[in-house]
Amino acid sequence: MKRKVVNEGAQKQTISDDSISQARAAFMASSEISDCKTIFVGIGLPCLVAHITQNYTSPNCHLVFESGLMEVICKTQPLSTASANIAKASKMHGSMLDVFSMLQRGEIDVGLLSAAQIDVNGNLNSSKLNTKSGKTISLPGSGGAHDISVLANKVVVVMPSDPRRFVNNVNFITSPNIPYGNRKGVVGVAMPDAYFSFKTGKAVLQKIYSDRTTEEIRSSLNWDMEISSTLERINPPSNRILEGADIFLQNN
Amino acid sequence: MKRKVVNEGAQKQTISDDSISQARAAFMASSEISDCKTIFVGIGLPCLVAHITQNYTSPNCHLVFESGLMEVICKTQPLSTASANIAKASKMHGSMLDVFSMLQRGEIDVGLLSAAQIDVNGNLNSSKLNTKSGKTISLPGSGGAHDISVLANKVVVVMPSDPRRFVNNVNFITSPNIPYGNRKGVVGVAMPDAYFSFKTGKAVLQKIYSDRTTEEIRSSLNWDMEISSTLERINPPSNRILEGADIFLQNN
Amino acid sequence: MVDKIMTAQQAVKKYINNSDMVFVGGFGHAIPFSIAQEIVRQKKHGLHLIKTGADIVFDMLVAGGCAQGLTCGWYGNPGMGMSNVIRQEVESGTLELTESTNFSMMLRLHAGKLGVPFIPSPILSNGDLAHTVSEIKSITCPFTNAEIQAHGSLNPDVAIVHAQRSDVNGNVQLWGSIGDTVDGCEASKKIICSVEEICQDDEISLTPHLTKLPAHKVVAVIKQPFGAYPSYLHSFYQRDEKYYADHSNNTKDALKTEEWLQSTIYNHNDFNSYLHSLPEDLLKKLEWNNS
Amino acid sequence: MVDKIMTAQQAVKKYINNSDMVFVGGFGHAIPFSIAQEIVRQKKHGLHLIKTGADIVFDMLVAGGCAQGLTCGWYGNPGMGMSNVIRQEVESGTLELTESTNFSMMLRLHAGKLGVPFIPSPILSNGDLAHTVSEIKSITCPFTNAEIQAHGSLNPDVAIVHAQRSDVNGNVQLWGSIGDTVDGCEASKKIICSVEEICQDDEISLTPHLTKLPAHKVVAVIKQPFGAYPSYLHSFYQRDEKYYADHSNNTKDALKTEEWLQSTIYNHNDFNSYLHSLPEDLLKKLEWNNS
After folding, report:
1. Which of D118, D209, D210 minimises the CB distance to C120?
2. Partners of chain D (3+ Cβ pairs below 8 A)
């Protein structure tokens, strides 16, 4: 895998494009999380968001995993929501019921999810994909994704850059963007170059890294892309964050 | 308090009439509990039943208290369902929800209760008493009594000998003898001299200690007393049990 | 890490409002007497108290004029009998009492914990307690078509609780008899907790299975040794049995009750002052290892 | 004291019937591989498996021909992806899969634990997963008058589970990540449990807060060190990451899957024989203290 030099100092280090891409998406998502919030963390990219949030942007957040682990210090990448690395770095071992109950009570400020597909209305698909040849590919299913999307006070989705994942209509609505009561549902989706808000109900390009153009974003999606009149250009993550993310991703 | 000599051996010992009376009622109730059963134990006389059952008659029973204590060895009298003596002699500290859930799932074989009043239909009153002068005296209330009466697979009541407690109609139905589903409800009541069965729905004298007459029983109740055609005469508890009960009652 | 350590005075002043619905933790064990004393001292009033089985700490809050309502399944002095204080206040019309059963209260708090509007149960379908609590409604079960009772959720404004230890961030560790404490705290919107010891983060991380209250809703941590006296705390101290045995006499009428509040609460600026007024060696005799 | 110690062979033979509904304990942690192997070895069949998130032990039970149905919120290899085994069996019509969500499964097991017919929740009201599970029914909330979903209770015939230790009577102690294990066991009619260590009664009495499964419904206690291998057990051993990483390739088609079952199960009379076939020093390297 191609790795590029990101630190010209004493310790020369190379980081793969894939790692940088994940860190950029995760850092973009973490910009949506203010300090002291309680976060329900899914597996995959959401864990990197949690790591960056806790280490660089909002250090007093409370991290909760579906297995029942609470008050987790997310130092290394967990492969499952019950992995030993996060179980050992947790201050409270509750049950799955305990943490989903927190979610249902409305005490989860932010749900962090990924998905196979997201549509322009913020609906998520984790269940099945239709191929061009007409076949259906089964995926592992909702897990807690549907529940988090309905019950978290707000949901931030984080996705790799892949046009097949950003579609106008998902093949299957596992997690509908129809939140319970006055909760906010999917408020946005972060990807390696940009962040889309669903404030109006429909995806609008809200933030873009200063090293990218809106045309580059448009070509990386299968969406009819709208651009906010208040589009923000923000700085990409620092080398320190990219390095930290790379170490996180390598240690699981 | 008057105490009588019950052991002429090396260690002379005196036991109060009250202690003997409680032990006789409790032993009578324990004769209704077979081995390896799971028992939900109320405070007061039910604890003495549990002690006698565990130590003398059915040693493999599982004792459960409302506070969430399970697998308790009931060595000394607890004043509350969460007392330190039973907490220290417990093999499992669950919650109140855990034990009431066992009850609701139908896993409690025997609920052991006492009450201020019991009527001929097995209804129990723990809420309020009407005095002859027309006043109402408030009592501490149901606690778990209503719940146990409705949800235990069968309920055995144990009462002191006091005619005011055995009435044709209780002043207030805290715990109706209307069990849930196919559970059996209040199957009987033990008192210091006898045991009444509610098999037919109405109290019938079923067991009597061999040192008592049915006329003595009748005069100790405010019930229209029926006598079973299969009345059993059983031996009162041994001195060993009376002594054990006395030690239990003195150590709380 | 957010430091939540404060005094009982600060915590009660800041986080308990008049007319709040208050869940009182502790069940025969770990009863939050020190926080309850401070609520009386600050003359909070109009509180609606919530409990399964309400023990003598409720006499303190009611006699102190703090409570307007009490919803519970039982009230009194466990193993001893009736509460004179509550009986008198109910009879004189100054306390609104709603009686149900311990399991119904437990289910209602548990529904609050789960974040659901109710839990169905067959209890309170029959008898003189049925149909007296307005938050319990008959429904038809969609699976069995039988009538069943929907026990409506309770989400108290605040829970007060005592426990063995916590870190400064509110990772509270509690063990021993649990009763309704954890469900009641989880159902409540915020938690005020007193503890015997403040410990380091890394000590908590070594025993995460003992952490029972979620830090994100613990708003105040009060360091108060013997904070559950005269009740007991598993591994720390035994119950003062004489205190409980004398309680009925100490509260047998309004005059005696006022003397009791005077000597235990009003004569003292805080709980430590009260502890110092106890007979010498009493607390030493109550140490857990002496049991 | 009733002695419940027996072998996995005896426990599976005596307590698991064909066509039983089976809850499988362990969630990313403490997965009962040794009991699952024995179920495959004894060719139990027609089982209906129940789980929130179903990991690779389900591939073993499904590939072994034991399962007729699977009801779950997720299935696959955590962090790795799809289960080839389950996908193939579903496509060929030999496995009936009912998909919902992890929380819905949790609520249904919890309703089973509580002994109530259902728990209401707003989840599964919308989207393509809504209205696909027949045991989830729309009702009107008697308090809010809003539509809400009644998630019907599950009470499996038997739970299989692995834990750290137990006494001979079935007071099972479990710690570390809990997931759905305790609720699933409480909901089940009986529990078969394997443990690393059998300990004395008095050891259990010293740590009653660690006892998680109620002895009265534990019917069999199996002493099986490394009984959760290749998953991990808190305080005892780490996960065999290579096993999980290789799993997708080991089950990529029917032939490979059959080889996998052969080498891990059919070639061995029991789990200890399988453990002995593992590379020398592997288990030693996985010891908890080496992590």
Report:
1. D118
2. A, B, C
Q: In the structure encoding, which two tokens stand for residue C156, read together?
A: 């108290």
What is the value of pTM for the model shown?
A: 0.97
Q: What type of residue is B199?
A: K
Residue A3 has pLDDT above 60, yes or no: no
**D96-99 and D136-140 beta bridge pairing:** unpaired
What is residue A13's predicted lDDT score, i.e. its pLDDT? 64
- Rounded Cα distance between D36 and D24, Å, is 9
In CATH, D8-100+155-198+218-282 is 3.40.30.10? no
Convert the pLDDT of each residue in D53-108 to its tens digit. 999 999 999 999 999 999 999 999 998 889 999 999 999 999 999 999 999 999 99
- pLDDT for position B252: 59
Measure in Å the smallest separation between the Cα of D96 and chain C Cα atoms. Answer: 23
Structure tokens at A20: 């940088």
The answer to whether the CB atoms of B173 and C239 lie below 8 A apart is: no
Six-digit token pair at D246?
Answer: 């290789």
Order the strands of the C147-152 sheet from edge to edge: C118-121, C147-152, C136-140
Sign of CA dihedral C71, C72, C73, C75: negative
Q: Do D209 and B98 touch (CB under 8 A)?
A: no
Q: Please judge whether D211 and B92 are an interchain contact, meaning their C-beta atoms are less than 8 angstroms apart.
A: yes
Residue D125: list chain A partners with CB under 8 A: 150, 178
Inter-chain CB proximity B94 and D114 less than 8 Å? no
Nearest alpha carbon to residue D193 among D225, D216, D226, D170: D170
pLDDT digits (tens, 9 = 90+) for A120-150: 999 999 999 999 899 999 999 999 999 999 9
A71 interaction partners in chain C (CB closer than 8 Å): 169, 171, 208, 211, 214-215
Q: Mean pLDDT across the stretch D233-237? A: 98
Give the phi and the psi of residue D3 in degrees, each rounded to 5: -85, 120
User: In this complex, do B105 and D114 lie within 8 Å of one another by their Cβ atoms?
Assistant: yes
Q: Which residues contact B113 (CB under 8 A, 6 or more apart)?
A: B42, B46, B124, B145, B148, B149, B155, B156, B157, B158, B175
**For residue B35, what is the enclosing H or E element?**
none
- Tell me the C-alpha distance between B144 and B175, whole Å: 10
Segment A59-72, tens digit of pLDDT: 999 999 999 999 99
Burial group, residue C42, by CB count within 10 angstroms (0-12, 13-18, 19+): middle
**Distance set, CA D149 to CA A125, D66, D118, D131, D133 (Å):** 21, 32, 9, 9, 11
Residue type, D184: G
**Torsion (CA) B66, B69, B70, B71 in degrees, nearest 10:** -130
Domains, chain A: 13-250 (3.40.1080.10)
Smallest CA–CA distance from D205 into chain B, residue: B91
CB atoms within 10 A of CB D96: 13
| Location of each CATH 3.40.1080.10 domain in chain C | 8-100+155-198+218-282
- Say yes or no for a CB contact (<8 Å) between D142 and C150: yes
Give the pLDDT band (50/70/90) at residue B6: low
Shortest Cα distance, chain B CAs vs residue D90, angstroms: 34
Only one residue has tokens 């072994």, namely D64
Count of beta carbons in the 10 Å neighbourhood of residue A61: 23
Predicted pLDDT at D291: 74
Contacts of B93 in chain D (CB under 8 A): 208-209, 211
**Residue B138 near chain C (CB below 8 Å):** yes
How many Å apart are CA D191 and CA A222, to the nearest integer? 51
Distance from CA of A180 to the nearest CA of C (A): 12
Copy the structure tokens of residue D90. Answer: 């579903």
* Chain B meets chain A (3+ C-beta pairs below 8 A): no
